[in-house]
Structures
1.
Amino acid sequence: MNPGSPFAAHYTIEQSTVQLSAGRPVRAQRLEVIEDVPPHDHAYHEICIVTSGGATHRTKNGRAPLARGDVVVVPPGEVHAFERVERIEVINAYYLSEWLMGDLGLLWTEPGAVPLFLSTTLMRAQIVDTVQMRLDAADFELIAAELSQIEAEGNRAAPSPLFLRCALQKAVATMARAWMRHDPTSATLTFRPEVWTAMEAIDRAAGAGTPYSVARSAKAAGLSVDHFSALFRASTGYGPTDFFQRRRIHRSCTLLLNPRPSITEIAAELGYSDAPHFCRLFKRYQGMTPSAYRTIYNV
């Protein structure tokens, strides 16, 4: 929440409201909105698909009419509001980005998916603000059906992780394709080949729990360490070492959502020297300890 900005959030909707958890890392719900919703932001990612009615959707970039078939994707911290509401019905979906990040390699294969649903978590440059677009009839029906299935599965006593993941992935892929048709320039992240190669090396190292060498990436690119680091930072907003540490923490979040491994075991799997070192870095990047993270998401 940034009350000093020209278009400021009156309040923030916290994770405790939507109750994402290890067992329900994605949730969906049908809502009927009968009055204007003041400017607000969220502590999580939100997808909103309009099934009936109308309103005016306001963001920092202006106002746009909202009607059946429109979808809005709102990253954490982005302010938006609904004005001139005419009894609008929506399906809202909320997802835990660290959980979705577990499929990052797969999501990169679907153009538009990473910038639309994960850019604010992954990077500090080339990030995507709130997106609103009109879906064609076929895409609307498919996405509405998948979100409805997520809602129904989430109401079960023990939702299937596989079912939830597959349903969200289908909805994500469909929205990414629609966005690529709607605005292909904004939907495409651009990386120089040497930066992309380094990002792949970083993900391999973070996943395997092995060290990452900036010098090795720079040498492979035929550049000095300083020149390579500047190129990497221009593309992602982070230096390569910082990006590597963040990807390790993203990976640790995924592992922490599983109640079986201990924090010490997770630290060892990710290549940290010991659990206290891991806990210090986790708190630096996530603002809380690994134990607190597990408590928040009911692990």
Note: The CA atoms of residues 135 and 178 lie 7 Å apart.
2.
Amino acid sequence: MTQRKNQSSRAKKIRDEVGIYAALTILAIISMFPVLWMVLTSLKTRLQTFAIPPVWWFKPTFDNYRDVIFGTGGFDFPFKLYFWNSLIVGITSTVISMILATIAAYALVRFRLRYRNAIAMLILAVRMLPPIALVVPLFIIFKDFHLYDTIPALVLVYTALSIPLATWLMRGFFSDQGTMLELEESSMVDGTNRLGAFIKIILPLITPGLAATAIFSFILSWNDLLIALVLTASKAATLPIAASRVRVEEGIMWGQLGAIGTIVMIPVVIITMIAQKYLVRGLTAGAVKG
């Protein structure tokens, strides 16, 4: 009797696991299908792109990437300029926002400020503002200060938008470090000042949190279209702007659009894969406490 119960429970466990893995597989396929379609479209000719039914087996061509990068095939815009603009804006805004957000989160957790919870909520409230409500005032301000279509304008905006979320993520991670204060105090007893303790003791402990938060901050500026579309024209335009300019008289150039989307996706995928272990540790540790 006991053996039958064990076999029944084992069979039920196997069925549950199969069902879970099947559901996860289906969700993964649904999630990845748009990405797969975009990559395949970037490798097709124009005729293959519009073929009905869709062509799944074909000889890949990199003509779309050549058109985008070198401006051939009637696709004429400074791709390299847009790429470097995106890279400069993304890295600069991420570095600045991480420095400020880390210091702010440390202060909110480390010091017993009287209204620190209210301050934290006020910081988060800034992120709750929809970007569409900010673009017109920002456009007017940057026009008046002659910052329209400049990289510093984009860096300033993306930094301001990244700081609230980054502060809250880092605040949660600081709160989860139970031994952090003890190690810091021990270091200060040995003669290290607060800044030295912060750099030598605290920062190494929060490396996973820094990696996870930095990726989110970088993605915000790297993928954004709305703000860059309103605040730039040509000199400071970024890669998402290039994706919005693939419409010509003959229609939308789907192959080139897929190539641009794939190029925009590649740096984020590479960075995420490199920082994968830190990303998982940072998200799981920072989500425990807030």
Note: The longest helix spans residues 2-42.
3.
Amino acid sequence: MKRPQTNPKNVDERLELLFRHAGLSDKQAKLYRLLLAVGEERVSVLSHRSGIKRCNTYTLLSDMKARGLVTEFEKENVRFFRPERPEKLESIISARQRECMIATSLAKDLMPDLSTQWKEAVNKPTIRYYQGREGVQTVLEDIYSQGKSEIVGCVGLEKPDEQLFGEIIHTFMPLRIRRKIFTRALNNDSERARELQKNAPDRLSDIFLADGTHYPLPAEIDVYEDKIAFLSFAKKDFMGLIVENKDFAVTLKSVFTLLFSLLQQQQEKPKSALGPTIPPPSVHQA
């Protein structure tokens, strides 16, 4: 009875899988199979026949020697290597399986601690500081970058100088509108703010006004995604700060959302034709 012929390609694939599970690289597997074919050979010949550089060949064989897969010896002052019995591969794989079982057990025991460390690292706020006009532009570019749907915040529009205010109106605002990013903002009552409030719906924004005497807004705050941006334009000493933390962003956005909701309710009461305005605080006497 004839034995069924073995598919050489299938054998090659299974050998490659075996060598991989034993921890051999592709080049080491090539050298080992070459030694199995010739029995023993010089490093120079193994390098030539495998196409691996001689220095790399010796390094790879030395690593295999440390694992007990090959033996090194000298013959007539020339270094030779010969393969150890293939059963050594089985013992190496069994050892790796035991190591995997130990690693799996350790991972199971240590996972709660690792998860705690990961949460602390991920939830740790990231803070980036920017200075100068270019720094502020970098912050504004991040605020109006593609992918977000809404920005909430506050700003005193009288603080930016004419040049920066022009860039905001003529560059960043059209960019925001093209990207369909809606804004809700609390502004100090001023000519600039009232002018913007007139066309707020067309500019995808809600603008609420606050008395700048009683509620000064010398800096700008923008909340978007998991970030909070702070901008200062005082005396042209431009500064910007981006804090990235989900809890901080959600909390501050909730504060703004509550404020805007209350202001929206004021629209049902008699108000200025220009839109909702925060009145000065009441004075109560005892």
Note: Residues 14-88 form a domain with the Arc Repressor Mutant, subunit A fold (CATH 1.10.10.10).
4.
Amino acid sequence: MNQSQSPEPLRSFRPPQEGEVIECLGRRYTLGRETGHGYFGAVFQCTDEWGNDLVAKVLLPQGRTYEQVRQEWLTELQNLKALRHPNITYVYDAFECRDTFYLIIERCAATLVDLIGAPDLPGEEWLPAVSRDLLQAIDFIHQSGYVHKDISPTNVLVVMSREQLLSTPPATVVFKVGDLGISRLESDINLFNTILAKWMHPPEFLDPEQFGAIGKPVDIYHGGLLLLSLLLGRIPQFTPAEIAAGEPRRLAERVPSRYAPAIVRALRRHVAFRTQTAIDFWRDLNQSQ
């Protein structure tokens, strides 16, 4: 080693504490309680000095090097900046503080998991609004050359807003796709390096030679699973054998809904016979109304 070079500084991940104020480039954020925890990231409530309700996503090392975590942070930041759309979560800020990487993102009221699990939810009535926002986001992601790969119920977020000038404003509900760190350009997609819940494995993940190549139709399949869950009022579970045998599609065929045929086509096992684009999926659903 060159004696004139200084040794690399020791890196030490430091998660935020509730009530802590983080400052970066003159901006201050007050951290609240932890609201979510995944394998590679934790989410904390957060507010800025303007009083905006936000969340701070902190990337967790999980045995990875500083450079590996930094690269993931840069990738997610790049995706969030490249994929600006009303139905995709908005990033307010991104920075490194004490060897810990932060993304400051708009706060959402709930996830699709909460909506699906709501007692006596009229899923048939909610489906047009959910599918419109969800499929617009997927369409934009695909038109930009990306594939999300993990459009799960926890990654579809519910945003409620009110018009401040009205004394008793009605709430406007918007659904947004989040967790774009997993998104990749279609040419770079590698679903086998993606951690998915087993019930969400598309058939082409299990056997690409039989069912087709992995690409944008993965997101169409996941969209079909989400809309099926909304109609059922629960998140169904499938084993790999059931997925390969086409049980998700068969379950959709048994659902007494006018939207079921469109969902059935989105859940076909073979990529070549599945609904190919988000706009085609939306057209199918519209024809059912």
Note: The mean pLDDT is 85.
